[in-house]
Amino acid sequence: MNLYTYRNATLDDAEKLKLVGLNSFGQFKNQLTVEHWEKLKTYLENEDNYVYLLSKSTCFICEFEEEIIGMAFVIPNGNPTDIFQENWAYLRMVGVHTHFAGNGIGRQLTQMCIDFARTTNEKTIALHTSEFMDAARHIYETAGFYKYKELEPRLGKRYWLYLLEL
């Protein structure tokens, strides 16, 4: 019997996604200044950010006993930002509840996003990650992403743009 179930998120999941975001990214609170943590926390607490991401993306979630414990959004090309080019798909908010870290959930969610991007004929999938997200960088690099370039610092930390050619 599989302990975890995976499925696509719906708008009804926004509140629970917010809780996963606060928990999974909350583990980095002590690695940020108070000011930078407050900025990140304000973003994570705003349910509208999850609703917006759900409207633009496909979100894969992992559940344990009907509670959402992991999430990953894949946004299709045609949604450029200051970081991501028009012709790239990209990952956002890959997070796993800290009580379930180390069980392969982040890896599985990342792979689901990659597989989905392939089936929708994306050519490139991108993401950005930081110096304090060691486990995430390891997952991305073993999945085939490569460091494309360093970005301007965010939250007072080093960030990199990663790409995977599909």
CATH topology: Aminopeptidase
The SSE order reads: EHHHEEEHEHEE
Q: So what's the overall shape?
A: globular
> Could you describe the largest sheet, including whether it forms a barrel?
7 strands, mixed
> Beta-strand level of the residues, as a percent range?
25-35%
What's the level 1 CATH class? Alpha Beta
> What's the total count of β strands?
7
What is the strand arrangement across the widest sheet? 1-2-3-4-5-7-6
Mean pLDDT: 97
In which range does the helix fraction lie? 25-40%
At CATH level 2, the architecture is 3-Layer(aba) Sandwich
Number of helices: 5
Backbone CA Rg: 15 Å
Q: Any low-confidence stretches, pLDDT <50, length ≥5?
A: none
CATH superfamily: Gcn5-related N-acetyltransferase (GNAT)
Distance between the termini: 32 Å
Structural class, from secondary structure content?
Answer: alpha+beta
Structure report:
The chain is of the alpha+beta class and 166 residues long. It has one domain: Gcn5-related N-acetyltransferase (GNAT) (Aminopeptidase), CATH 3.40.630.30. 36% of the residues lie in helices and 32% in strands. The protein has helices at 14-26, 34-45, 47-56, 105-119, 134-142, and strands at residues 5-8, 58-64, 67-75, 89-96, 124-130, 146-154, 157-165. A 7-stranded mixed beta sheet has the order 1-2-3-4-5-7-6. A hairpin with a 2-residue loop joins strand 2 and strand 3 (67-75). Helix 1 crosses helix 3 (47-56). The chain is globular.
SSE arrangement:
Blueprint lengths: L4 E4 L5 H13 L7 H12 L1 H10 L1 E7 L2 E9 L13 E8 L8 H15 L4 E7 L3 H9 L3 E9 L2 E9 L1
Parallel strand pairs: 4-5
Antiparallel strand pairs: 1-2, 2-3, 3-4, 5-7, 6-7
Helix pairs in contact: 1-3
